[in-house]
From TrEMBL:
The lineage of its organism: Bacteria, Pseudomonadati, Pseudomonadota, Betaproteobacteria, Neisseriales. This is Uncharacterized protein. It comes from the Bacteria.
Length: 288
């Protein structure tokens, strides 16, 4: 009797094992894998907040384009305008940044944007001459009787080969916004990069100063052994909120060489209460 039961028990054990294997396979095939999480932190994007009551800036921009005699460009969202630059009369092809709306400490609703334009000859790819500059126009609008009206503007002619510098709308304080303009060039062995800050304050656009973020004359000497690099300086920076302060501090870390001297310095710069300028040491803002 025992011999007859042994094959039966073995058969049942095999069936049970097969059932377990099948269940595992089904689970593997039907389970959704967990999403991969990047170890690197996400880049901080500039938030474009809506107007407090859902309005847009389009009417204000229409008035501005009309006053500047702008015409529609060859691509959607781009505009053509004739402007006077350091190179004489120039045809520009540009676009408006998505506006940032905010409410100041005095309760006034503001909207800021910028018109960023290259020369037409640059063809969007730096095809113009090195000396040709692009243009940035920072624009500040304020709410007046339900419409956003232009309160202040600044024009910055900068860039090379017909290309405008980079522009971002940035938060500069708990209730303060402004513009960050990044520029740079390389020419005849020299290179230089800088960033400038402009704040919207009391209906005006106020310059907060310039910081040179990279400067080098390494390319001026073909033989490094007989002609050591005099300047190879970089500056990393960040805006730092401080409790009770309306505008953020600027934390800067310089490293490298400056006119033959080794440099390693870190400073936290407070904007001047009256002028809003960051007191960047002049020696570090190199101009070749």
């Amino acid at each position: 009797m025992t011999r007859k039961k042994t094959p039966l028990l073995l058969f049942l054990a095999i069936l049970a094992l097969a059932g377990i294997v099948l269940a595992v396979l089904v689970r593997m095939l039907t389970t959704t894998p967990a999403a991969a999480v990047s170890a690197a932190p996400a880049a901080t994007a500039v938030a474009v907040a809506p107007a407090p009551d859902g309005r847009t800036l389009e009417r204000g921009l229409e008035h501005y384009r009309s006053a500047q005699k702008m015409s529609a460009g060859p691509k959607p969202g781009r505009w053509l305008v004739d402007a006077e630059t350091q190179n004489g009369p120039t045809r520009l092809d540009g676009h408006f940044l998505a506006p940032q709306f905010f409410t100041a400490a005095d309760g006034v609703h503001y909207a800021l944007t910028a018109f960023v334009a290259d020369t037409v000859d640059a063809q969007g790819d730096g095809m113009d001459s090195f000396a040709a500059s692009g243009q940035v126009r920072t624009l500040l609008f304020a709410d007046q009787a339900g419409d956003f009206v232009l309160k202040d503007s600044r024009t910055l002619t900068a860039g090379t080969q017909g290309m405008a510098p980079g522009v971002r709308l940035v938060r500069l304080g708990e209730q303060a916004w402004g513009w960050q303009i990044s520029n740079g060039w390389t020419h005849m062995g020299y290179s230089r990069e800088n960033v400038e800050f402009f704040a919207a304050r009391d209906g005006h656009i106020v310059p907060m100063g310039e910081l040179v973020t990279s400067a080098s004359d390494a390319g001026t000497c073909p033989d490094a052994s007989n002609c050591p690099v005099s300047t190879e300086l970089t500056a990393s920076w960040r805006l730092v909120p401080e409790a009770g302060k309306p505008f953020y501090s600027l934390e800067v870390d310089w490293s490298g060489r400056l006119r033959g001297q080794a440099i390693q310095r870190k400073m936290t710069l407070q904007p001047d209460a009256a002028t809003l300028r960051y007191p960047v040491p002049k020696a570090f803002n190199i101009s070749f």
